[in-house]
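Homework-ish question, so no full write-ups if that breaks the rules, but can someone show me the predicted structure for this set?
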Amino acid sequence: MNIRTDEFSLIAKYFQRSHGAGDDAGSAVSASSQNRSRRDIAVGIGDDAAIVIPPTGCGIAVTTDTMVSGVHFDEKVPVDAIGHKLVAVNLSDLAAMGAEPAWLSLSCAFPSIDENWLTAFSRGFFAALDYYHCELIGGDITKGPLTLTLTAQGIVPAERYLKREGAQPGDRIYVSGTLGDAALALAAQQGKVSVPPEHMAALEKRLFYPTPRVALGQLLRNQATSAIDLSDGLLGDIQHILVASGVGARIQLDTLPFSQAFAESISGPDGWRYQIAGGDDYELCFTIPESRCGNLETLALQAGVKVTCVGIIDGSRELRFFEKNQACDIDFHAYSHFQGA
Amino acid sequence: MNIRTDEFSLIAKYFQRSHGAGDDAGSAVSASSQNRSRRDIAVGIGDDAAIVIPPTGCGIAVTTDTMVSGVHFDEKVPVDAIGHKLVAVNLSDLAAMGAEPAWLSLSCAFPSIDENWLTAFSRGFFAALDYYHCELIGGDITKGPLTLTLTAQGIVPAERYLKREGAQPGDRIYVSGTLGDAALALAAQQGKVSVPPEHMAALEKRLFYPTPRVALGQLLRNQATSAIDLSDGLLGDIQHILVASGVGARIQLDTLPFSQAFAESISGPDGWRYQIAGGDDYELCFTIPESRCGNLETLALQAGVKVTCVGIIDGSRELRFFEKNQACDIDFHAYSHFQGA
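A: Not a homework solution, just the prediction itself:
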């Protein structure tokens, strides 16, 4: 069997979907029109490169994330969740720029072809992609240690994208959703903490199937002065806003939002570690002038996303944590890959 | 040492370049303006996503290629050549669409941090990128088996991009440059063939430092009816044009262009194997109506790229090879990754 043919048949079987054939039975669907569920895709999978046609007056947000077997996931992670999460972590970056997700490029290295794995992976991948109405436009499949790289592109009106710089003293600091569920689930899987069995499923759902805050990111375009997504935890991620903006922050630990499952599993200072240093929440953290807070909270409620004020930007250039207005020392660090390297 | 800091310091040291500081000494270069050697980059490396501003009326060509240690390169490949080739193979795909290269996203998995390797890799990477006036806008560095994924984006006037489909019976088939050097160099390295020592450097240069035909691709926008880049060899790659266009082709083996080093190392049917099935040439193959051939050859000469007519498109839906107008049987296959999978 020709090996190159194998690569193409894998793409055709698992990653190249025919759109519109059902709506327009009997018409010939040419190779070039198969990927046009989005009309801004002129050439989809199957040529040397894809061609997309951006709307006039828009910027394109571009982000890339890699997930490596044994580093970002292991055999405890459901395979469809790997597909979901690869999409979610990239769309979370687009959300933090205020962009609308549009086009994805997927590159995979596989040690061998496992059709069951591919079926489950592509199911999770395309379910996430369909939910956010974005489309796979190309990629690469090669032999190698299991590694998945996704480049996601989104559309944002020029000059209205969000950045990490822009936070001003007096701005309120908000986070979306709840914090700490994913990190607590991971710690429980690793036996580092004990969690009531009835809450494990809810916590693991947040670890395995994170929700990128795509709608909220677009709502923030006219509101927030800075934004970032919480992939490594509030402790590390908010420092990017502070450095880029040349400001400091005061975080009120007792205002950090938590889920019911989290609250019934852990509390107080033990919980804060997971909430601010655990990572994998994929919530948005953003700053907003006090005058816009009421409007923002109303808009977010209408969009079905909870947002919580957890602190305030100041001119100190320091990041300080408080509990009921008393300063707290934090003795733990943000997550990073090359520990000890 | 904080691990996450490591990742950011690696990016800052090897992948994030400050532009314009030398031209404008004394001015403060903010984080957000560091990546603006191209003025169409509004936000470069260092935020959740990059923001690029495409020109009005243009399409964006997007392509992704992955290179895996032990699969696409080994210790015989100079490290700076790995950086060069990662850029070259992606720009070759953009060239085949007629696009002007613009923005690159790089994702790397490293088993550990080898500063010598990173120095050499980034030297080759940025030399290629600078030559083609494109810019790194983002990426990801993570721990894992050595794997490099590049997504390249190029700009092409809407409706003027090249595709694989469009070849018509009677069109002439052209290739750029010469064929077979890279494959012959690889076979010689592997001891499969003997090459005169005085020619090895010239052949290896083509294997290690391929030249994407970026200028030629843009010249072809108004000329070619179809185009593809030769990454897997003419035998396999032209079939993509034939299938996409619903046509057949006759290739004259004795017209295939070769370098002097190639001609003095191997000849005749033994050489054809490397020229049509060897791959890694990164030349363009394209089809063009006979009426435009004279004009095309003149334009290409002016641009300093040799183009050679090697055959003709016909209505047969078959790919046939000829030597001096006598039909030849070909008993070898195009390159592919999952051999035996």
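Now go work out the reasoning yourself. Hint: Chain B touches chain A through 87 residues (CB under 8 Å).
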